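Morning. Coffee machine broken again, so started the prediction first thing and wrote up yesterday's gels while waiting. Chain of 442 residues, entered below exactly as on the submission form.
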Amino acid sequence: MARVSANQLSFGLFCLTAVAVLLRPGEMVPELASIPVYELLSFSTLALALPRVVELFKISSLQCQPATLCLVGMAAIIPVSHLTHSYFGGAVEGLADYFKSALFYVLLIAVVDRWERFNSLLKVIALAATVMVTMCVADYFGAVDFPFINHINDNDGLTASGDIQRVVRMSGSGIFSDPNDISMLIVMTSMVCMSFLTDRARGPLRVGWLVPIGLMAVGLLCTKSRGGLLSLGAAVSVLCMYRYGKTAAITIGLSGLMAIPVLAGRQAEAALDEGTGHDRIMLWREGLIAVRSADIVFGTGYRTYYDIAGLMAHNSFVHTFVELGLVGGTFFFGVFFFLGWQLWRLSRPDWPLLDARQSRFIPYLAAIGAGWTIGLQSLSLCYAVQTLMVLGLATAFMNLACWNLNPPRLLLSWDRVARQRLVAASLCVFVAFNVFVTVMTG
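Came back before lunch.
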């Protein structure tokens, strides 16, 4: 009985941890600013879930979870990336910094050990995100002034008379204080809410999820984020492909492209040969040139991209290839590679799931993954807790799926074939980035 109580308490504390990550109580309530709420909640959860966490990190368990093994590999490469430059302080600081974000992933896959908990955590995340986006929208339109929300006044090109044109872009709070960051959370939350809305088993009250979906739509437009719009396009296209087939997905995608200039304004203006698109490619170029050196194996060092280019890479995959080299970049890419591979298997008729609730969520999980992956092409969120939250949800889902396959079996394991395919795919991606940057920058 005590074990069951500790198990339940650990999940409850983790849900509060997720709320703390999204809503940042220390910013919303000044009296809590000096209290490390996230750390207290996460370490309390760890204390209660320690037996399960230890079980996850056994060699036999890691071999069955290649995505988790890749994140462990990143943790090993982060200090190495500094030790190869004799920067011992950076090795310790880098590992400690990464540990705080990775702990969220570890706790998520440890405490979410049944479908009911996965579903409950999705609700917690969706509701917490809705609260934050609602506050941001209200602040953006001047209905309420929240001191912890500061929107960005951005350059939007030139007017017809040659004057600089400015535009206000909605921002969030805490780790979502950038319009592009909160736009990715908005897309993810929209897909989660859509999964609840379309679930007939939830009864007529499910129409209430239309409210947060509407708020997310308004919030995304207020961010004026091109990356957010691309992320939404990817998510909707993948969802339509799973639900209605390729033809319907292409038709809806083309219709969306025609509607974008009317609905999105600034967000519809995207060019790779000028403006922010070209600037970001130049940032990729600076990093890729730097890593084509003796640093090719273990990188220039964790959190050193700014020192190289003056800004972050604005591409999470390029960012890790540069800072952690081919080895660390392959591990980061590997998390997406293995989760995508597992998701593809679950989509095949010869890998049926016994639980219909899990089966119907596969298209929405694919949409969330596609949207987040596209968003990472223009943002450096490779070590961020929000990215590890999405990866943790996907990993937890795969773990649950293994227990409900007919017949029960592993979706994937860390074997020779998996390793060979990962290395080959990672090298192709690295070469593709280099070729793309070379072509686009002349």
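The mean pLDDT is 89. Going to sketch it on the whiteboard this afternoon.
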